[in-house]
Amino acid sequence: MNIKSIESLNHNMFILRFKSFMGSIFSYTSNSASGETHKKTKLEIATRLAYPAYYVDNVVINNLDVSLTTNSWNILMNGGPTAPFIKNSQRHDFNYATSLSWFFDIFYERFFALCPETRPMFTHVSIVSQGKLLAGVISSALTHLSDTDRLKTRLLGMVKAHNGKGVKSSYYGCMGDALVWALETVIGDEFSIECKLSWHRVYSYLLSIILPEVVKYEIEKTRRSMTWVSKSRSNSYSHTNSVGRRIEVELDRVLLPKHTTKSLPRKTMSVTVLVHGNS
Ligand code: HEM
What we know:
By secondary structure, the protein is α+β, with helices and mostly antiparallel strands. It has helices spanning about 5-25, 40-50, 65-75, 85-90, 100-115, 125-145, 150-165, 170-185, 195-225; strands at about 30, 35-40, 225-230, 235-240, 245-255, 270-275.
């Protein structure tokens, strides 16, 4: 390999490293089925990462989803004993008065098992009254699934109040998990596999309204706790390759946690690139 090709190799490697570095921080591109390239924003990427494993992308709720979720929810809310409740009542250590109180209890226990750090948030609240509030929102969501504006207003109001309480995006996914698990446990065989899928679809729809707002709030909150280091501390790199194209890379601003004074974590760098000459 001659000197020129080594130079161009170095140059290409530099570009490659630079591209992968930029890509990992700010955005990446994906190709849709129609061949269109869509550049994902930081918010879209962060929101995607917050979705749970059962999340159904771009879900459109159909009549079957509405009827299966509403029927199973009514079985629970009507308060009558379900088959698993009757079976468990024969156990001497089973102390629940109704299927509903059993549901609230195991729902929160399951939720706390999935997200243990949330338990202290509920120490001063009655789980049954808390469960009733949550159930109220879910009942209303099921009734108004087709009234998107009304549903959005209600959920976004709830999100705003929850952001202030420190409820993180990841907790909402765990809550859906706990919800479906508790429904299945309390309702038993009447909770069919189709019904479970409909619950995942409906809850995914709620998450598609809730999570972008929560993630936006989390990104803003992180940004507010960071500060820009002035341009005078900038770093630059300049390279002219064998065909006379000059590339300048300038680390122009660095975003750091407010209290940080020394190290410049690579992940938080913002870079400007200037390419001179013919492409
Ligand atoms: C679809 C999901 C959710 C719905 C529909 C919902 C609904 C509600 C409602 C209606 C209230 C009472 C009014 C209020 O304070 O805003 C409430 C309170 C609360 N929620 Fe949620 N919630 C959801 C998810 C969560 C999650 C994931 C957490 C995680 C920790 C959480 C924690 C709390 C807490 C700590 C309170 C306040 C309890 C109190 O101090 O009285 N919620 N929720």
